[in-house]
Amino acid sequence: MGPAPRVADWLLPALIGAVGLAELASMEGLDGRGAAGVLLVLSCALLVLRRRWPLVASTLALLLQVGLPFVGPAYDEAATGLLVVAVGIFALARWIPDLRGLLGLAVVLVALLGGYTFADARDKGLDDIVFVAAITLPPYVMGRIVRRLADYNAVLAREQELVRQAAVRDERDRIARELHDVIAHSLSAMVVQVAAAQELLASDPGRARAVLDRVATTGRTAIGETGRLLHVIRDSDDELGLAPTPGLADLAALVAGLEHGGLSVDLVTGPVPDDLPPAVDLSAYRILREALTNAARYASDQRVRVEVAATPTALVLRASNATEGRVGGRVGAGLGLLGMAERVELLGGTLSHGTTDGRFELVATLPLVREPV
Predict the structure, then answer these.
(1) Which of 20, 52, 139, 147 can bridge 80 by disulfide, Cβ–Cβ 3.0-4.6 Å?
(2) Closest to 92 measured CA to CA, from 65, 57, 131
């Protein structure tokens, strides 16, 4: 059993019914108009249920039309019944997942053969077979094609969702590795600083106190990064990376590499604190790298403007490039933007992006002020 009828399920049968009744009303002097009108209305009412009970409702609607030869000569003149036949046969193919619709079609064809044999007084010939095939086969074939396309689209949508979920997991795993490196660095620094404070404790208590203050600051930073790390599902076989953790200090080298590949980058960098939280520094680099990579792929003029600015409470990243006249109409899958959103969300920031007046703009805001731990 399919879903309950929607408004759209009523529209087509109502339109067919209205046209059919108007057609019958215009046929003055023919017997059977009233009975033909009743059968037409009943057929259209059954077609409303073609998605909910496709086999039963569509077959009954078709059988009512097959019965029209028994009600009078109005059948010979009215053509609207062919629309009911087309919609009913299409429904048998479209809304039934397997080939059971052929059973309903077979029942209708047997009834149609009986009507031609016992109720239709006209001469029969090969042209009748061609006519029946012409009004039954195309709707059924079209219904099966639409069904297959709908099934394919449903599978494609599920696969796309799986790809998106995999991208989220991969990005979270990578963030976890990077945050792990940040925390490991902080803890290593704390160990070294505590050892230095121990040596200075007897000879220079003032310097030892200053060193311990830095240890406390480093510890609070590590605790904050650990809190974010707890929100990330990590891969069980994760390994530490050996390459240095990148940051905004590496942005110039990144831009130079992309410009060597043909991208023109207008980089505007305002004053940025030297003591950025390690996770913010790393994520800012990753976000800008993804934005620049996307611009290299999709910017219509191979130019991109990047702005980096800091307020007392946040680091603001902005990237924009032209999209009008893009060669080939290439469109990305959006997985890079999804990865950026994951990073920004883990840091408690905001991300916005969109196209205005032919330019794509992305703005990421990463907070610098931490919530109390």
Answers:
(1) 20
(2) 57
Tracing tokens 């404790």 back to the chain, one arrives at 201
Q: Which long-range contacts (CB under 8 A, 24 or more apart) does 215-222 make?
A: 215/190, 218/186, 218/189, 218/190, 218/193, 219/186, 219/190, 220/370, 220/373, 221/186, 221/277, 221/278, 222/183, 222/186, 222/187, 222/190
Indicate the pTM of the whole model: 0.49
- What is the maximal distance between C-alpha atoms in the chain? 123
Query: Which pLDDT score is estimated for 11?
Result: 92
Question: CB under 8 Å, gap of 24 or more: what pairs does 360-363 form?
Answer: 360/298, 360/320, 360/321, 360/322, 360/323, 361/318, 361/319, 361/320, 362/291, 362/317, 362/318, 362/319, 362/320, 362/337, 363/316, 363/317, 363/318
Q: What is the DSSP string of 152-209?
A: HHHHHHHHHHHHHHHHHHHHHHHHHHHHHHHHHHHHHHHHHHHHHHHHHHHH-HHHHH
- pLDDT at residue 355 is higher than 70: yes
- Region 83-103: what's the mean pLDDT? 91
Q: Which of 57, 59, 373 is nearest to 219 (CA)?
A: 373
